[in-house]
Specification:
- By secondary structure, this protein is mainly β.
- The protein is built from 4 helices and 40 strands.
- The protein has a 17-stranded parallel beta sheet that branches.
- It starts with 9 loop residues before the first helix and ends with a strand.
- Strand 2, helix 2 (89-101) and strand 3 form a beta-alpha-beta unit.
- The chain is globular.
- The longest helix has 27 residues, at 10-36.
- The protein folds into 2 domains: 61-156 and 270-509, Single-stranded right-handed beta-helix, Pectin lyase-like (Pectate Lyase C-like, 3 Solenoid), CATH 2.160.20.10; 161-266, Beta Barrel (Elongation Factor Tu (Ef-tu), domain 3), CATH 2.40.30.
């Protein structure tokens, strides 16, 4: 029996399939570009004379913001407290330890106001959750001389183990670059943890105008000669003597002033996947306003110590603390979101406290607010000495200009403040403190409506884009009006092919 005759020749079929592929690819490219380039302002075109570009802040946050926060679904323990209990802290700790021994899960706290002492340690893969910030309220029985909740191992001074190292040979590495050339790449490999390191030199300090600080006839030291400035990163790939990093640099490297190097390190340990959410914590005998020297009143409500990664706090209502959150050096990929902080009394003395102190990297603070007394002065978000980026603060709110977003001291780098009316200062603090000097490099303000004072150091750069009536000598772009995209952070996420719908930041992964 003869085979049925083909309706179309083989060549016609090839042509039809080929046309279909071309249409699919063309449409995909068109709609992809349309989605990525729908904004009226091209932020990718911002480039300094030396090639510096805006840091990529989208790597800040839990899992570098590649995913949203976990829901807490899965194994859990639901606690039930009776009215006669005088301290629920030990009961919470016992439940945390039990969940950790089972491999992780959630410790669910009941509704009510419960007496508690500070000092609960949350361990890897455990989440402590209440029924809501106004439904589950933990009331401290004493002023906190230690953190109420510590997510990870309390600081014990353990250092990383260092491995291969090599000098970086580039004459200048601009902010935003991911590529480094080294003398010898033999000891480097993809996925290794590395520090991009350099030592402060006399010429670099002098070049930034920081060599002659004097206060009350006493010399002030900004950064000591020889002090290492360390920025953690991870290797993406190695090709010959070129090393590509996973996270673009938030600081510039200039061989005219210092010899940078790349150093492999191994963390001593890592604690991960810890969270605290949907509860309130109060200090009835308020610590707000206590002198900074008061050791019984200056511990945070929530502490992320060194080597804590991919962890978070969400939906907390905190009242009466003198410090609300602290993120230590070498903690990373931390998210703090949808939290309120009630500072109900002004500080005694000139030294100001922090609401949120960032000393780690890849920290994301979003949709948080200081809701206490407008007279209560503080740094509502601040960075410590040499704090590496990227770090980001989105949609932050306060009650007055007495509460500022203000990098505190000594060359932090890579901080984004976005879509906020909070008074923001990226400046040379000069002789303030013990010689805080230039407090930030590679900083960006984006669509800021409040009071703005931005300055650029002689050997660095800070930007303010879409900022209202900014003051200072920084690089100002489109001042006096907001720009599109409204969110640099979200636009940079999209450049990484991570897309979020409005409100995703308030949701949890299912």
């Amino acid at each position: 029996m003869p085979l049925p005759r083909q309706c179309f020749s083989r060549w016609v079929i090839f042509i039809i399939v080929g046309c279909f592929v071309v249409v699919v690819v063309t449409c995909g490219t068109y709609f992809g570009l349309a989605k990525r380039k729908r904004h009226s302002f091209d932020w990718t075109a911002i480039v300094s004379d030396r090639g510096d570009v805006l840091p990529d802040f989208s790597f800040a946050g839990y899992h570098a913001s590649a995913i949203i926060l976990p829901s807490g679904d899965g194994a859990n323990i639901t606690l039930a407290f009776n009215g006669s209990v005088d301290d629920v802290g030990p009961l919470i700790q016992e439940a945390v330890d039990k969940m950790a021994a089972l491999g992780g899960g959630a410790v669910l706290l009941p509704e009510g106001r419960w007496p508690m002492s500070a000092g609960v340690n949350i361990t890897s893969n455990v989440v402590v959750a209440g029924a809501g910030s106004d439904k589950t309220v933990l009331v401290l029985q004493e002023r906190p001389s230690q953190p109420v909740f510590t997510l990870g191992t309390p600081n014990n001074g353990t250092k990383p183990r260092y491995g291969s190292r090599s000098n970086i040979t580039n004459d200048y590495v601009p902010i935003g670059s991911s590529s480094l050339d080294v003398v010898n790449s033999a000891g480097f490999a993809a996925d290794q943890f590395v520090y991009v390191s350099r030592s402060a030199t006399e010429s670099w300090i002098r070049g930034n105008g920081m060599s002659g600080l004097v206060r009350d006839d006493a010399e002030q030291t900004w950064i000591p000669v020889g002090k290492r400035i360390m920025a953690p990163n991870q290797i993406s790939s190695v090709y010959g003597t070129n090393v590509t990093l996973k996270i673009p640099l938030t600081d510039n490297l200039d061989a005219d002033y210092t010899q940078p190097e790349l150093i492999v390190y191994t963390p001593p340990y890592m604690n991960e996947e810890m969270g605290i959410r949907d509860l309130g914590i109060e200090v009835p005998d308020t610590c707000s306003g206590a002198p900074m020297s008061d050791k019984t009143c200056n511990s945070p409500a929530v502490h992320f110590p060194s080597w804590t990664v991919d962890s978070w706090a969400s939906g907390l209502s905190l009242k009466g603390f003198n410090k609300f959150f602290q993120i230590d050096q070498d903690a990373s990929r931390i998210t703090i979101q949808n939290c309120t902080m009630n500072r109900d009394k002004d500080i005694q003395g000139a030294a100001l406290p922090f609401d949120i102190l960032i000393q780690g990297s890849q920290v994301l603070v979003q949709d948080c607010a200081q809701v206490g007394s407008p007279e209560a002065r503080c740094f509502t978000v601040g960075t410590g000495s040499l704090t590496p980026g990227p770090n980001a603060v989105l949609r932050h709110k306060t009650k007055s200009d007495a509460q500022t977003i203000y990098p505190h001291q000594r060359w932090a780098h890579g901080l984004l403040v976005e879509d906020s009316s909070v008074k923001t200062l990226f400046v040379d603090r000069g002789i303030k403190g013990s010689g805080h000097g230039w407090s930030i490099n590679g900083g960006v303000g984006w669509n800021l409506d409040g009071s703005v004072d931005f300055e650029s150091p002689p050997l660095g750069i800070n930007w303010c884009v879409g900022c209202n009536d900014p003051k200072g000598n920084a690089t100002f772009i489109e001042s006096g009006k907001r720009v599109d995209p409204q969110s640099l952070f979200m636009a940079q996420l999209e450049e990484r092919n991570i897309y979020r719908q409005d409100g995703d930041n308030e949701e949890y992964n299912e």
